[in-house]
Amino acid sequence: xxxxxxxxxxxxxxxxxxxxxxxxxxxxxxxxxxxxxxxxxxxxxxxxxxxxxxxxxxxxxxxxxxx
Length: 67
Prior knowledge:
The chain has four helices and no strands. It has helices at about 15-25, 30-40, 45-55, 60-65. The two termini are about 20 Å apart.
């Protein structure tokens, strides 16, 4: 499994779905469709997305910090 960081390429809004797709080995499109389908259910999906957007480091910062 890959590290959970928001990629520089392939992101649409915040890169959260692309990061989760990379982590779980699926396509970003599949993850986006799952997220949109989950929005039909009651729950804090948008708040979770925003929290992950704020908490997940961007790939550019991770590579810059690692020698």
